[in-house]
Amino acid sequence: MKNMEKELLCPVCQEMYKQPLVLPCTHNVCQACAREVLGQQGYIGHGGDPSSEPTSPASTPSTRSPRLSRRTLPKPDRLDRLLKSGFGTYPGRKRGALHPQVIMFPCPACQGDVELGERGLAGLFRNLTLERVVERYRQSVSVGGAILCQLCKPPPLEATKGCTECRATFCNECFKLFHPWGTQKAQHEPTLPTLSFRPKGLMCPDHKEEVTHYCKTCQRLVCQLCRVRRTHSGHKITPVLSAYQALKDKLTKSLTYILGNQDTVQTQICELEETVRHTEVSGQQAKEEVSQLVRGLGAVLEEKRASLLQAIEECQQERLARLSTQLQEHRSLLDGSGLVGYAQEVLKETDQPCFVQAAKQLHNRIARATEALQTFRPAASSSFRHCQLDVGREMKLLTELNFLRVPEAPVIDTQRTFAYDQIFLCWRLPPHSPPAWHYTVEFRRTDVPAQQGPTRWQRREEVRGTSALLENPDTGSVYVLRVRGCNKAGYGEYSEDVHLHTPPAPVLHFFLDGRWGASRERLAISKDQRAVRSVPGLPLLLAAERLLTGCHLSVDVVLGDVAVTQGRSYWACAVDPASYLVKVGVGLESKLQESFQGAPDVISPRYDPDSGHDSGAEDATVEASPPFAFLTIGMGKILLGSGASANAGLTGRDGPAASCTVPLPPRLGICLDYERGRVSFLDAVSFRGLLECPLDCSGPVCPAFCFIGGGAVQLQEPVGTKPERKVTIGGFAKLD
């Protein structure tokens, strides 16, 4: 008990609790401290608790009004009449107040504002349990010394008794004086002297009744009267005994777990202490590194300052030398000095040959001096504007100089992330995130059986760019992926986990081959042979006018250049939602060639597009598996016909599919199980099953796409290396 003193300190006064109140945020604060805080917040008249009992001897029952001691609680039948008549307001509330004042209290423990309601502190419970713990702690450590009598004249004597009814401590003489024989006070039972008097039980602050129930919805103790108020109507209320037992069991269980794992606590304490030491050392190293870097910046600046000053000094000396020479030349032009004086003396020469000899060189100098005098200009400029520095960018950089921040958690682009033959993961950094030098991608399977235990994260280190390719994933599995960035400051936070379903079977790579049943006039196959578009053109429009007069419309078919002869295969494609009528599926190679070599008459009564070749089988009496399995798509919908489900054996998750239409997903998946003779149509995004039907697999089976009217189909590109296009002559290439 001696080590728990900090749990008993008020967060406001930092002293042991005195009459603590429980705030709505479950923190505690002294009642006097709460009044002071509310007063500082400007709430006048709400700091006191009218329901609180007095603590000073001056307000003991002996000095209060006799009317208060004779006041009795209303009878239950009268209280029921008051409640039914609408007089349900509690004391202190103004009747008819439309906008009552809501008091906010700044909790010093959680640093947040909590709402006290209209009544302020009067609506809070006292924490009697905490008061008892504080009193036991004081007695165990002998805090505060002797308790003095509150009614003695100075100097007071040491108290020997206490009275719960009078809420005061007495010496022997004062107790006899204030509890005279033959009066009602003589029946008060003396107790040990204490500084904190508590009521016998926890009382409801609204009705002054003993609390008997606990409202789980409001998480508040309530009395019998609180239960009938509309405030708790419809709430889950239990007896306080049940709440006591449940909470005590939880607390006991948690405490038992903590006490039973003291070794773990001690290990974690040692780890934290080691972390504290490392933090101190690392912080000192960081300080030294920053100081060294700043000193380095200062040294670079000082070196740069010296070089710039040296350049200015050299420029200045050069200019001064040129100006000094020019100044001397001009001073020599003054009368009687320098060049002018020498010329004046030469002019005095009378010997003509000698004059010519001396005056020739002198004349050149005089001519240059005369020209310089006429076109005077200083030999050098006195301005040093070219030596000014523009340090705006550098000052901005120095101002923005700050510690490196790790990259923020990347955002995975779910529109571009998908799983096909391989997993393609794409992400981006938030707009204001520091840049990342490289990334770490982690992934693992989540559908592993529980007996095998959780799988470990697999990691791809130092991924450059904002995308990654995860090769050779397991088929029919669920992978969870995450990514985080790294720079010089370290690793950032992980992105949110993304779950991806892999295809249920190995991906079949093939190209489109339009040689069987394809019309070059109506079908346009892309150069890479992975997309096809049906363009009906004018013939179909003309046929639409003669639709009731027996016109003929052909079915155009495009097959894959690869046939399956064993195992399980999966492929996906996207159908244009604006397509008029498109059939996607598989079929026997021989039957497809026989059926689509010519142009069937889709208007003639002899032609049945669902005659055992697709999801509309002929009738339920045919037990043999059909040679075709097609899914019909038209105008952005998938048609699940009743005939298809009943006759061809198409079944969904809930048994035979009813005649209905479902929206067309962005991509369709086809899964072929050759050994079982079954084909499944899936939503290639969520891998939700759409249809499953039997298929005759007595020979090679190949993908097929049929068009009636306009439409377009795009095969899903493989994530990895694109396969080389196979050229076949006289038949399909077989995939073994």
From TrEMBL:
Domain B box-type residues, every copy: 199-240
Domain COS: residue ranges: 347-404
Biased composition (Low complexity): 50-66
Localization of this protein: Cell projection, Axon; Cytoplasm, Cytoskeleton
Entries under SMART domains matching the protein: BBOX, RING
Region Disordered, residue ranges: 44-75, 600-620
GO CC annotation: axon cytoplasm; cytoskeleton; main axon
CDD domains: Bbox1_TRIM46_C-I, Bbox2_TRIM46_C-I, FN3, RING-HC_TRIM46_C-I, SPRY_PRY_TRIM46
Quaternary structure and partners: Interacts with TUBB3 and TUBA4A.
Name this polypeptide is given: Tripartite motif-containing protein 46
Protein species of origin: Chinchilla lanigera
Name of the encoding gene: TRIM46
